[in-house]
């Protein structure tokens, strides 16, 4: 059972609000985080591109069933200049777009004909870093060791 404060934070998440919560050891941060992840999982109805669970370190990511923020964001260690990181992401995105157009052409699907649920575009976007950013509705970042200012800017 969540405390009133924890429930307030969970309710904010349910309202699609940005939240930041912190606290001393043993105050229930992990319990609350598990509740938030559980709600996001249920809300996404199996669509794992709608939310991402990340942490600043690999161990923390594994502990919450996620990945590192850097890995999810597609920046590796994030040591390259921001422009270079963005160029790589956009290049990958446009390569995937071209591959998808070619696939649709081979199958005889007219370019102006889109599936009602845009599943082709959704599948294609989910395969690219840019696509992840386009599709994600909730980004969870665990751990108080936040990325540096330069890393945050890259992300």
From TrEMBL:
DNA helicase Pif1-like DEAD-box helicase domain: residues covered: 1-85
Gene3D superfamilies associated with the record: P-loop containing nucleotide triphosphate hydrolases (3.40.50.300)
Catalytic reactions of this protein: ATP + H2O = ADP + phosphate + H(+)
GO MF term list: 5'-3' DNA helicase activity; ATP binding; ATP hydrolysis activity
EC number(s) given by UniProt: 5.6.2.3
This protein's UniProt keywords: ATP-binding, DNA damage, DNA recombination, DNA repair, Helicase, Hydrolase, Nucleotide-binding
InterPro entries named among the record's database cross-references: DNA_helicase_pif1-like_DEAD, P-loop_NTPase, PIF1_helicase
Cofactor: Mg(2+)
Alphabetized Pfam families for the sequence: PIF1 (PF05970)
Gene Ontology biological process: DNA recombination; DNA repair; telomere maintenance
UniProt KW DNA repair keyword: yes
Family label: Belongs to the helicase family.
Protein name (database record): ATP-dependent DNA helicase
